[in-house]
Design the sequence.
């Protein structure tokens, strides 16, 4: 079935079984490999993307429900040459170890920072409660998210990503 | 002249009635006990009190999530306004640090505080009146040895004239019977113990019995199902909609572990209850289960036959091939608009065959899908089951960001049709919208205890 999606601000048309999880469409059809397959059960958070501003687990989201919604993946937060504030902060704080969970972490953080550019540690812990990291870089991830909030405020962005997609 | 006489007669009558009422309503103050908070209590008594406080689930109402245990201040919404729970730590100024054991006992038995004020029946003294003096002694010893916390209780905001506490004497005349529970000699000691715990301190009926327009439990419909914190407290009498009828054994397992393979996991306020019950010895859990199962009665032959099928299909001992999103979903079973959503978004977990409590329950076993009111399945679909902090727990992601109100309504209508023989739910979309927006307030908390799990992940109130 042909399905129209809006991903990172671009209109895409893909041909897929409507029940296909969004994750596979992103990775296999659109070559957006940021979102990762972790558990496939919506329990680890490595597949997290942002849909209409909210964090959504793409491994259990059938693509048929995404018609007309705005999807943002980690690739939509910036480029290698010009990283967005979240990406910049994760680099500065060296928040990735193996890095597998990081795109999911960043997308949960992105949804949080859109609502609240100055989150407390408690807010961050709550928003990222379902993102698992087995390397144990949690303290650096927390620091990176706080830093991203600062960068966004310094750049005068009202909330994350307003100038970008999603 | 005649008018004046009639008027003065009426006035006298009113005055007499008022005096009589105040006489009935009036309770004396029990003097301050300066030593109460510093008195020593035997450790065994304190330990027994800790168990009993767990049965009473005192912590759930007397603690604001995330704040120190028992320091009160939780806003309890009622149809009559908002009541705030009191500080029951032994702080002398803001808690019960000046309460003698007699004052505590009177509060439990009669619903009157140390100063002589009538308490609102949000404090379930209609149940606690049955607690024995020995158990009250242990509860008192436990509470008086907690860390005192200075925390003022916020004022209540109730509809006029309910702020006037003497009126509660009228409520008590109508609905409150002080007394001890007489054991039923026709029943076993275990059954009687279970009744004592369930009807007394456990106050199961406070949630599981429907309430009348004046907020009192409808005794004619004991355990016929009620409501708590935006969740349906299912009928636990003969009206239970559990597809596999409960028996004493399955209830005991559920209350002990917080889940049962043929019934699913406890959640909402019941998760706090099963969490607390972990302090109880098996014998008390068994007693509660024997008593409650006896009230559910013998299921009909049809129900038993259906249950036998379900047990054979879903009971333990099967070899499980777990699946995840890499398993292609089966094609939708019908062209119902909810069928495709169910197959793609739900069936991958709920029909994977993974065991409770970590796998999704097959909805053929789900009381929520068979219940008269869909509220619980609405709550779980929107907000999921948030994970406990730092320990294994049942977990389900919320679908609020993925599904629209209409899509959830279609999905639930399909599940109702597919998995139960019950009549379709009405006005689902509006119910989903009101739950999502917070117009209908639901508390959704992780299951790992009030102090450690402060966040309500449900919708904020409008």
Sequence:
């Amino acid at each position: 079935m042909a399905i129209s999606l809006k991903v990172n601000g671009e209109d895409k048309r893909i041909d897929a079984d409507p029940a296909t999880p969004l994750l596979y469409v992103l990775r296999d059809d659109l070559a957006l490999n940021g979102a990762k397959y972790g558990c496939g059960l919506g329990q680890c958070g490595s597949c997290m993307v942002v849909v209409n501003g909210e964090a959504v687990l793409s491994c259990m989201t059938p693509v048929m429900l995404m018609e007309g919604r705005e999807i943002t993946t980690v690739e939509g937060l910036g480029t290698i040459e010009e990283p967005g504030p979240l990406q910049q902060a994760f680099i500065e704080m060296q928040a990735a170890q193996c890095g597998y969970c990081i795109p999911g972490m960043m997308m949960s953080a992105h949804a949080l920072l859109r609502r609240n550019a100055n989150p407390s540690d408690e807010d961050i812990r709550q928003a990222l409660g379902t993102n698992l990291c087995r390397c144990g870089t949690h303290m650096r991830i927390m620091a990176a998210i706080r830093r991203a909030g600062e960068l966004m405020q310094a750049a005068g962005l009202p909330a994350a990503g307003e100038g970008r997609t999603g | 002249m005649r008018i004046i006489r009639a008027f003065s007669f009426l006035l006298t009558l009113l005055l007499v009635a008022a005096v009589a009422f105040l006489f009935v309503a009036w309770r004396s103050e029990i003097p301050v006990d300066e030593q109460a908070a510093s008195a020593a209590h035997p450790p065994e008594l304190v330990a027994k009190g800790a168990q009993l406080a767990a049965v009473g689930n005192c912590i759930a109402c007397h603690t604001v999530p995330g704040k120190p245990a028992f320091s009160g201040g939780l806003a309890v919404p009622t149809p009559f306004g908002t009541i705030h729970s009191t500080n029951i730590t032994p702080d002398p100024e803001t808690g019960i640090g000046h309460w003698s054991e007699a004052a505590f006992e009177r509060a439990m038995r009669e619903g009157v505080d140390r100063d002589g004020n009538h308490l609102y029946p949000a404090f379930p003294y209609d149940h606690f009146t049955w607690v024995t003096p020995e158990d009250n002694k242990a509860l008192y010893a436990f509470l008086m040895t907690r860390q005192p916390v200075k925390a003022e209780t916020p004022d209540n905001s109730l509809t006029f004239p309910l702020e006037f506490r003497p009126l509660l004497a009228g409520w008590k005349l109508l609905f409150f019977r002080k007394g001890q529970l007489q054991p039923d000699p026709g029943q076993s000691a275990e059954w009687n113990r279970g009744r004592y715990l369930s009807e007394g301190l456990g106050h199961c009926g406070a949630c599981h019995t429907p309430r009348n327009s004046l907020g009192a439990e409808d005794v004619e419909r004991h355990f016929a199902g009620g409501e708590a914190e935006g969740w349906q407290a299912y009928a636990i009498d003969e009206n239970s909609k559990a597809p596999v009828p409960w028996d004493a054994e399955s209830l005991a397992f559920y209350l002990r572990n917080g889940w049962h393979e043929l019934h699913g996991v406890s959640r909402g306020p019941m998760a706090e209850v099963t969490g607390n019950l972990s302090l109880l010895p098996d014998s008390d859990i068994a007693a509660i289960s024997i008593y409650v199962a006896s009230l559910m009665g013998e299921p009909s032959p049809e129900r038993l036959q259906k249950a036998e099928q379900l047990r054979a299909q879903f009971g333990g001992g099967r070899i499980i091939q777990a699946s995840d999103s890499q398993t292609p979903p089966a094609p939708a079973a019908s062209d119902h608009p909810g069928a495709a959503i169910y197959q793609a978004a739900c069936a991958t977990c709920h029909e994977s065959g993974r065991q409770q409590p970590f796998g999704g329950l097959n909805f053929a076993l789900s009381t929520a899908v068979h219940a008269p009111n869909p509220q619980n399945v609405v709550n779980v679909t929107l907000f999921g089951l948030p994970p406990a902090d730092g320990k294994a727990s049942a977990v389900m992601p919320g679908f609020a960001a993925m599904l629209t109100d209409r899509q959830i309504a279609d999905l639930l209508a399909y599940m109702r049709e597919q998995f139960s023989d019950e009549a379709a739910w009405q006005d689902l979309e509006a119910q989903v919208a009101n739950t999502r927006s917070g117009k209908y307030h639901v508390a959704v908390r992780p299951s790992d205890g009030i102090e450690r799990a402060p966040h309500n992940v449900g919708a904020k109130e409008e």
Notes: Residues 77-154 of chain A form a domain with the DNA polymerase; domain 1 fold (CATH 1.10.150.120). Confidence is low (pLDDT under 50) at residues 160-166 of chain A.
